[in-house]
Design a protein that fits this description.
Strand content: under 5%
Helix content: over 70%
Shape: elongated
Radius of gyration: 18 Å
Order of helices and strands: HHHHH
Largest sheet: none
Number of helices: 5
Distance between the termini: 21 Å
Length: 160
């Protein structure tokens, strides 16, 4: 059971890390080339469509599977493997803390600005883009690191 949980942790975290990395390296640079009204509208629509059931399942799995893999005992798992799983879990939790404390409030403010009378797209963008990208760089680094740590735990030979 613990091996399956670790495999699910690696798979789920890998999917999420890939999503974050593509956003960092492809989507946000492409959106940066848009005009202010286009950028603001595009980010609003992305923020409406991303938190759907499949995304939310992966988002929750990034915490649930590493936690389960850590707490479910497995005979033969080394201390190094246990510490790698724990470190991966900590990075995933920190990723979610940045998301919940940084990116989501900015997304919420961006959505609220759509109905605000003073919703000038250039002002809205300047209040959003740089800060959102800063938080996103941090959470991307954390989840890529989590993926690496969990993968290392999974491939490290027992007894090593």
């Amino acid at each position: 059971m613990a091996t399956l949980l670790l495999a699910l942790a690696v798979g789920c975290t890998g999917l999420y890390a890939g999503f974050m990395l593509i956003f960092q390296t492809g989507i946000m640079p492409a959106l940066a080339r848009l005009t202010d009204p286009e950028f603001v509208t595009a980010m609003r629509r992305i923020n409406e469509y991303v938190p759907r059931p499949v995304f939310l399942a992966v988002f929750l799995g990034v915490i649930a599977f590493p936690a389960a893999a850590f707490f479910v005992p497995q005979d033969g798992r080394t201390d190094t493997q246990k510490w790698l799983v724990l470190a991966g879990l900590v990075c995933a939790v920190l990723n979610h803390a940045v998301t919940i404390g940084g990116n989501i409030p900015l997304n919420t403010a961006l959505a609220a600005s759509e109905t605000a009378p003073a919703g000038d797209p250039s002002v809205v963008r300047s209040a959003f883009e740089k800060r959102w990208n800063g938080f996103h760089r941090v959470r991307t680094a954390l989840i890529v690191l989590a993926f690496g740590l969990l993968t290392a735990a999974a491939v490290l030979p027992e007894g090593a």
